[in-house]
């Protein structure tokens, strides 16, 4: 019970908080559904998930908002893979997100 209490305090008692993984799934699916079928497999979700897991192993990323972390991982992957067809979608997500300026800082 002590450990459970510590975890609950760390998440500010927000038991139903949305995780970075859930944001990653949401953003990925939104980007995918706005592309033609032949271009949908350019970005690999498993690779994005692995990058998110790597971020969770570093203390500096634990302070980032989950939505900012997920969007930043996708933005960096798009740059690395040179998937320019996703750029417009990510910019749209950034503009519609409250975290627009925070995402710019993480890049």
Overview of this protein structure:
The chain is mostly helical and 107 residues long. It is 64% helix and 0% strand. It has a domain at 17-34 and 41-96. It has helices spanning 2-10, 20-33, 45-56, 66-81, 87-96, 100-106. Helix 2 runs antiparallel to helix 3, helix 2 (20-33) crosses helix 4 (66-81) and helix 4 (66-81) runs antiparallel to helix 5 (87-96). The model has no long low-confidence stretch (mean pLDDT 83). It comes from Rhinopithecus bieti.
Question: What key attributes describe this structure?
Answer:
64% helix; 107 residues; elongated; mainly alpha; Cyclin G1
Ordered list of secondary-structure elements with their pairings:
Blueprint: H1 2-10, H2 20-33, H3 45-56, H4 66-81, H5 87-96, H6 100-106
Helix pairs in contact: 2-3, 2-4, 4-5, 4-6
How would you sum up the major sheet? none
Mean pLDDT level:
83
Rg calc: 15 Å
Oligomer category: single chain
User: What shape does the CA trace take?
Assistant: elongated
Amount of beta strand: under 5%
Regions with pLDDT < 50 over 5+ consecutive residues?
none
Based on helices, strands and strand pairing, what is the structural class? Answer: mainly alpha
Protein name: Cyclin G1
